[in-house]
Design a protein that fits this description.
alpha+beta, 3 helices, 3 strands, globular
Length: about 120
């Protein structure tokens, strides 16, 4: 998204639930990761693709993967696509406050505001 102005797809994300950010996450955290990842991609680029361990071998998803896939779809649908044309801003001011360890509720907050449309996505820590 930041390299050129054309449509970009976030693909080859880590495979749910065993790889990368998913490893060791409980079902609620897995759903939050999926929702936030898809929402961020819908706002910042042309979308994304959900990947799962069972999907690699064309097997049916287990309950965790199925729930994560639904959360992914809901995250993508949560973004008003009109906002993709808005100016990009990293809203570090909305990532505060942080606790004594320097950890905040949000890892990143992004905005692409267009008149009449709320274009903010919050990526939870």
């Amino acid at each position: 998204m930041e390299i050129w102005g054309g449509p970009t797809l976030t693909n080859e994300t880590s495979r749910c639930p065993e790889v990368g950010m998913w490893r060791g996450a409980d079902p609620a955290r897995t759903a939050a990761l999926a929702f936030d990842s898809a929402a961020g991609a819908a706002l910042l680029c042309a979308g994304s693709c959900f990947h799962s361990v069972h999907g690699k071998t064309s097997e049916l998803w287990d309950d965790v993967e199925g729930s994560a896939a639904m959360a992914w779809a809901n995250g993508a649908k949560s973004v008003d696509l009109e906002c993709q044309d808005g100016p990009y801003m990293h809203r570090a001011d909305l990532e505060e406050p942080r606790d004594s360890r320097g950890v905040g509720q949000y890892l990143r907050v992004y905005e692409r505001r267009v008149a009449g449309h709320d274009g903010i996505v919050r990526i939870r820590n």
